[in-house]
UniProtKB/TrEMBL annotation:
Protein name according to UniProt: NAD(P)H-dependent oxidoreductase
PANTHER family (alphabetical): CHROMATE REDUCTASE (PTHR30543), NAD(P)H-DEPENDENT FMN REDUCTASE LOT6 (PTHR30543:SF21)
A Pfam cross-reference name: FMN_red
NADPH-dependent FMN reductase-like domain sequence ranges: 6-123
InterPro entries, sorted: FMN_Rdtase-like_dom (IPR005025), NAD(P)H-dep_reductase (IPR050712)
Superkingdom per UniProt: Bacteria
């Protein structure tokens, strides 16, 4: 029997009930036999990155965020694209991790779910490569036109998108077990 892996899932949107949050909740439901998924919805609470505060005692919200990443078997980030980039709040949170090695070799799944998302997805991949996260093509998913694919109740209504998410879950599970 496979052991259940602890996954820290980060919603890159600060909007309550965003499509990204709905996708993470669907992934939690679809993968409950594989993963124990803890969804982080507090990006807005992480203070602006300031190198002067990135000391042995950073702000408590930063310490808590880093600790969740550290203790997780893997990380899933699901984010929208804002102005051809990742949201500033997500980039801010990731900037707090640059001075650490918590993402080095950490197994990561990356999802960009937005209207277009191509540039934001490229940027997310570049940032995660820079901080040495471990992901591959199969654990990286771009969902374009997301608003028409997820219902207001959070169900993924597009069959192809649901199939892509199932493949993403399987690929992420395989990466975690390597």
């Amino acid at each position: 029997m496979k052991s259940i892996k602890k996954i820290f899932a980060i919603s890159g949107s600060t909007r309550s009930n965003s499509s990204n949050l709905k996708i993470l909740k669907q992934i939690a439901e679809l993968s409950k036999d594989l993963f124990e998924l803890k969804i982080f919805e507090s990006l807005a609470e992480i203070p602006h990155f300031n190198p002067d505060l990135d000391t042995e005692n950073p702000p408590q919200q930063v310490t808590n965020f880093r600790n969740e990443i550290q203790k997780a078997d893997g990380i899933i980030i699901c984010t929208p694209e804002y102005v051809f980039s990742i949201p500033g709040s997500l980039k801010n949170a990731l900037e707090w991790c640059v001075s650490t090695t918590i993402f080095s070799k950490k197994k990561v799944g990356l999802i960009t779910a937005s209207a277009s998302g191509e540039k934001g997805h490229e940027e997310l991949q570049l940032i995660m490569k820079t901080i040495e996260a471990n992901f591959n093509e199969d654990t990286s998913l771009l969902i374009q036109g997301v608003r028409g694919k997820v219902s207001s109740e959070g169900a993924i209504e597009d069959r192809l998108t649901l199939e892509q998410i199932r493949k993403f879950i399987a690929a992420f599970d395989n990466l975690l077990r390597e």
